[in-house]
């Protein structure tokens, strides 16, 4: 077997190990989105309907954020095979995270025709903190990398193929890009824009192979016809209004006070122009866009604890000089111009969708940056190796520095993250659900505090509550964070008013420490892994 194939197999084995090792145990708990993916997949498996009773939806209402459907449907066979558990929910993400290493290798090889750069790109993506973090959780966004790299590779293969193979490859590209539109919201911005770039770059070749474009075009039209009604539906607009800076519901700059000052000073006409909120969008969006290039965000803190390991950002510090060198050499050296345009277009388009939302920089919404950073680093280290002498010394020092960075990441991820960030991972819900379920027969009802953040989903998931029974009881009323009407069996999910509710009937309470008086009858106290109190189970008797 050729050496490069052996190295690729070794990289893929390492990628699979890093993504599947202790997958169900670390991170230490599912977050609310993961439990929603899991329970809705379980409900689809058992009933063909989601938790609201909608049959095979193309948009899952979930927490009123209307998730694209593909990840949930991918979780259905996983739950069917492994059961409803944390491993099963995370399995599709880990699997496609591993496959993304292969498709990245193939894409880079097709772009640059250089096996070493392709192998380095695959290796750097394999050990990337950014990619590893999200390959090990059931978030939709991670899987977009696989579909995007698969689609790009297939498109390039189609452009360079001949005869009927052109239609086959381009049909695969259309399918991969089309599926990506139903993977994560941000793909709905990136994929159309990136597709336009590809079409423009190869418009001459595409015009010459028009007869082979019929099937790929039909596939694209089918996916578009499914997506457009969703985007313009009430559900799509609710998602839009809840995240975008263009929404009237967003905390956008308020110009009314400034215009009133201009009115009083006789400058109303100018004020209406200068303080028009549409002009305010530009600096907000630009600032949002540039925030994703903040070194602190990239190399140290990410955006929230749930998105990185302690002391580690989204990229290694080791990456920085090689990324910069790779960008320089990609511009300067005689790489194929179209390949350059593809990589830089990918890089510059990656944060566009995130830039028109609040809460930036956001590592999930901008994960589409992967694998451009790894490709830059691969080009950088490959080119520097050819320039720097003695080569062995450079290779030893670069390898040692990378190993130290990688080892530190693994230590922080497996040793410190579960303890330090268990609160961020909503640890304790499983134990609380199971304990309250064991005790419920001694009480008339169980009130679970909504301060536990979407508790109905955790209780449904961890109790594996029969979806048929749940839907017969009314299913989920609303996934909004202030919703207090969800209930099933003896469980009621609402704010706790202990003094009042404990007098109404025999009640078991599950909530936070602050919701109970000091003399409460605490049946069980559940701590986070750092020893801090997480959840109290209290008897109202």
Structural features, described:
With 541 residues, the protein is mainly α. The chain folds into two domains: 3-30 and 85-244 and 284-420, no CATH class; 429-539, no CATH class. The chain has helices at residues 3-20, 32-47, 70-82, 86-112, 115-126, 129-135, 140-160, 164-180, 187-201, 203-208, 214-231, 234-243, 256-264, 268-274, 277-291, 295-301, 319-332, 337-349, 352-355, 372-387, 391-420, 429-439, 455-462, 467-472, 498-504, and strands at 445-448, 487-488, 491-493, 507-511, 521-527, 533-539. It has a six-stranded mixed β-sheet with strand order 2-3-1-4-6-5, sandwiched between helices. A hairpin with a 5-residue loop joins strand 5 (521-527) and strand 6 (533-539). Helix 4 packs antiparallel against helix 6 (129-135), helix 8 (164-180) runs parallel beside helix 11 and helix 22 packs across helix 23. Mean pLDDT is 92; it is low at 249-253.
Concise account of the structure shown:
It contains 25 helices and 6 strands.
Keywords:
541 residues; mainly alpha; 2 domains; six-stranded mixed sheet; 25 helices; 6 strands; globular
Name the beta content range: 5-15%
Number of strands: 6
Residues in helices, as a percent range = 55-70%
- What is the terminal-to-terminal distance? 72 Å
Global outline: globular
- Cross-sheet strand order for the largest sheet: 2-3-1-4-6-5
Largest sheet: 6 strands, mixed
Radius of gyration: 26 Å
Helix/strand/pairing class, anyone? mainly alpha
Roughly what is the average pLDDT, rounded to an integer? 92
Number of domains: 2
